[in-house]
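Hi L.,

As promised, mRNA cap guanine-N(7) methyltransferase:
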Amino acid sequence: MSEPHAPGKRARSPTADSASEHQPKKVHTEVAEHYNARPDVGVEKRKESTIFRLKSFNNWLKSVLIGRYARPRDRVLDVGVGKGGDLLKWSKARIQFFIGCDIASKSIEQARERYRTMRNVPFEAHFHAMDCYSEPISNVVSPEQVFDMVSMQFCLHYSFETETKARMMLHNVTSQLKPGGVFIGTIPDAYWIVKKLKSESDDKLQIGNSIYSIRFERRDTFEKFGAKYWFHLEDAIDDCPEYLVHFPTLQKLAEEYGLELVYNKKFHQVYEEASQELDFNQLLYRMNVISEEGHLSAEEWEAANVYLAFAFRKK
């Protein structure tokens, strides 16, 4: 990946012209259909998953990130809310107001139902099916609504299909985020992925183990945008198209939109630090990441290393 251009004094409009924007939204449709097709199973059924502890670990890590940055009475925008799996985390954070958006309409229906059946929920919530990488958030959220926090868990990388989509994503993150507000999220670590691919034999286009795989069409060059690969995670993601996020490019674009990087650590690093804190250590056991029956397998631990967590603060 080559270094991005230096940012200008002002962020360019996210609707800037781009030839790729006139192409059919094939990936958009494929991603929406993939997540619409995945059933929302109950807690007991989830325990039967072959990657139950990895899923628990990912949830624990999101709890750490939310616990670090969310404050009581916060107003939160969750882009890529999915089926609402983080609603309980937000409830425990005692936020005041919540808006969840997702490209998958069925997931939004399930998130809305999950919220409806929650007990003693401390916050008001609204849910919208929309593509936050192709249309402005003001289409569904009042421009007067200001957020203290924006969360984007395991989904930002879809915006790196094109620069235009990445800019729309950042426009939606920042346009209604108050000064001092925080943008948190989790993404695949492009540096680690490419480094691991390059460590393989010259003709190999895939990395992974028995529970995950990342497959490329080529391995010679990786553009800042549109560096496509297919991701498979056992019992979770079925060979879905995704895009590498060149983090220096994300950081420089974010600066154009008034965001300053304040946190950027791989999942393994987050674990090493947070597990030393009593509350988060106890949470590892309550969330079944660790129990008397066992802990993450070596292959699950490797899969966890694919990701990093970040936080930006709006200047």
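Residues 52-69 form the longest helix (18 residues).

Thanks again for sending the construct details.

K.
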